[in-house]
């Protein structure tokens, strides 16, 4: 989270994921003056993992620089659905190290997946 690039919103976010290969990958949000080009911490971590060969995320923790628990945006939830199963673990945390544990299914109960295209 300390490496986040958030000069516009000042909303810093960090994410760390544990993949089936046992490796941990991290990411931060990276903003852009053209907001649509901003990338969230969750997607940064997942894209890093996939670029290094990982294909399944078993756990993710998302933390931000406020007292509120982090909540992944819709785009991040959809990307997470590509690489996480319904029972995989999502931890949402805040800047005082409070956190709450969820299953991915609780975070996105009606995820769109490749099975919807059959």
TrEMBL record:
Single GO biological process annotation from the record: nucleobase-containing small molecule metabolic process
Q: Which UniProt keywords apply?
A: Hydrolase, Metal-binding, Zinc
- State the name under which the record lists this protein: Cytidine deaminase
Q: Which Gene3D superfamilies match?
A: Cytidine Deaminase, domain 2
Q: Where does Zn(2+) bind?
A: 40, 73, 76
Active site at 42 (proton donor)
Classification via InterPro entries: APOBEC/CMP_deaminase_Zn-bd, CMP_dCMP_dom, Cyt/Deoxycyt_deaminase, Cyt_deam_tetra, Cytidine_deaminase-like
Could you say which protein family the record assigns here?
Belongs to the cytidine and deoxycytidylate deaminase family.
Against Pfam families, the record matches this protein to:
dCMP_cyt_deam_1
PANTHER family reported for this sequence: CYTIDINE DEAMINASE (PTHR11644)
Q: Can you list the GO cellular component terms from the UniProt entry?
A: cytosol
Query: Which Enzyme Commission numbers does its entry carry?
Result: 3.5.4.5
Q: According to its UniProt entry, what is the function of this protein?
A: This enzyme scavenges exogenous and endogenous cytidine and 2'-deoxycytidine for UMP synthesis.
Residues annotated as binding substrate = 29-35
- What does the record give as cofactor? Zn(2+)
Q: What residues does the CMP/dCMP-type deaminase domain cover?
A: 1-115
In its UniProt record, a GO molecular function of this protein is: zinc ion binding
Q: Give the highest taxon in the source lineage.
A: Bacteria
Recorded catalytic reaction(s): these are: cytidine + H2O + H(+) = uridine + NH4(+); 2'-deoxycytidine + H2O + H(+) = 2'-deoxyuridine + NH4(+)
UniProt-listed NCBIfam families: cyt_deam_tetra, PRK05578.1
Q: State the organism of origin.
A: Companilactobacillus heilongjiangensis
